[in-house]
């Protein structure tokens, strides 16, 4: 019985199959011609010996390892897990495998992850970057010629890198327009954005799209809110802008404080998944009837939004398509294809359910 080798070579396979080294190499590389009998002998010999291709040698010859890196802040987050699924599906269909790193939104972990992926000779990296002022590791690998695609968010110092993202401003604008179409003019917005209303209004009204593109997704969504209000000639009110950290508990506290403030609103839109969960918890805790007392539109189509009554209307981001687009954009850059666009902004969808009610204007 033939012994199974821990590191069998093409020479071992050729000897086991009783064929020449060149014939074995053609069969194992799936290139060139070989008779059906030769193919069978070589493949059976490779199986018996446990032959595995020398990926490093192949990479040195072709310049590619056919592996991609993807660096995400939280793979347990339903948004990023769906993005990852779309990314890996598209990568594998193109002949690439994927190495994944989770940063926990820690810039040091992100930096070490990027360096490790570079050491592994991945052909390119897709990164949803930690929000920081000086992402040196990303800038360094891009400068070294490793193709990089940004996912979901951009940083000011990385303006030259391609981005794949949802159109965040349009996403929230869709929600606000739907509320306006149903008669609402006092629309509260729950957001992570930290900029003042005056600063955001200046950006919303200004022509500087380049500066707008560098805003965080949370701020871009507020811009969409302001633009939808302005298009309907509804003045923005600082008292209707609710601030929260990215936390279910903080969002609940922010909405409860708003409900206690006495400020009048007939509708509320929360601008991400965690804030949506916290906002709905606050409405439930305070016995707010949706949509009779307050119309509500959330963000991201979470499982629970269709289990509660009334079912919650949401903005649904094209999560898997974002991942797939990032993969194809990255692979195109690796193969030297000229990009069709520097940025790929994908449209979100408004899923209207039962949490938005029409009101009669006085």
UniProtKB/TrEMBL annotation:
SUPFAM superfamilies: lambda repressor-like DNA-binding domains (SSF47413), Periplasmic binding protein-like I (SSF53822)
CDD domains attached to this UniProt entry: HTH_LacI, PBP1_LacI_sugar_binding-like
Gene3D superfamilies hit by this protein: 3.40.50.2300, lambda repressor-like DNA-binding domains
Domain HTH lacI-type, chain residue ranges per copy: 8-62
Molecular functions (GO terms): DNA-binding transcription factor activity; transcription cis-regulatory region binding
UniProt keyword annotations, A-Z: DNA-binding, Repressor, Transcription, Transcription regulation
Taxonomic source organism: Microbacterium keratanolyticum
Protein name, per record: LacI family transcriptional regulator
Family annotation (PANTHER family): HTH-TYPE TRANSCRIPTIONAL REPRESSOR PURR-RELATED, LACI-RELATED TRANSCRIPTIONAL REPRESSOR
């Amino acid at each position: 019985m033939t012994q199974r080798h821990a590191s069998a070579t093409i020479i071992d396979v050729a000897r086991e199959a009783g064929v020449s080294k060149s014939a074995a190499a053609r069969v194992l590389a799936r290139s060139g011609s070989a008779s059906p009998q030769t193919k069978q002998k070589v493949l059976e010999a490779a199986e018996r010996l446990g032959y595995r291709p020398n990926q490093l040698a192949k990479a040195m010859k072709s310049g590619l390892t056919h592996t991609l890196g993807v660096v995400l802040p939280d793979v347990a987050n339903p948004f990023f897990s769906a993005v990852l699924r779309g990314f890996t599906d598209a990568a594998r269909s193109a002949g690439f495998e994927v190495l994944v790193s989770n940063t926990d939104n820690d810039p040091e972990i992100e930096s070490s992850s990027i360096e490790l992926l570079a050491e592994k000779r991945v052909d390119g990296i897709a990164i949803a970057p930690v929000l920081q002022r000086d992402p040196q590791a990303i800038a360094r690998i891009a400068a070294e010629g490793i193709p990089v695609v940004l996912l979901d968010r951009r940083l000011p110092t990385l303006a030259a890198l391609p981005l794949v993202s949802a159109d965040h401003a349009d996403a929230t604008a869709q929600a606000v327009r739907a509320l306006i179409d149903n008669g609402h003019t006092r629309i509260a917005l729950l957001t992570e954005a930290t900029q003042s209303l005056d600063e955001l209004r200046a950006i919303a009204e200004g022509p500087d799209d380049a500066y707008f593109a560098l805003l965080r997704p949370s701020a871009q969504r507020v811009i969409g809110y302001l633009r939808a209000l302005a298009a309907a000639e509804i003045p923005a009110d600082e008292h209707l802008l609710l601030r929260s950290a990215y936390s279910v508990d903080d969002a609940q506290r922010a909405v409860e404080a708003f409900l206690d403030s006495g400020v009048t609103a007939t509708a509320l839109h929360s601008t991400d998944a965690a804030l949506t969960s916290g906002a709905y918890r606050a409405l439930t805790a305070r016995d707010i009837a949706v949509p009779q007392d307050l119309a509500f539109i959330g963000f991201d189509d979470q499982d629970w939004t269709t289990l509660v009554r009334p079912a919650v209307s949401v903005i649904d981001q094209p999560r898997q398509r974002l991942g797939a687009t990032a993969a194809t954009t990255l692979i195109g850059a690796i193969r030297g294809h000229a990009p069709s666009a520097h940025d790929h902004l994908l449209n979100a969808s408004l899923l209207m359910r039962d949490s938005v009610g029409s009101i009669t204007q006085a």
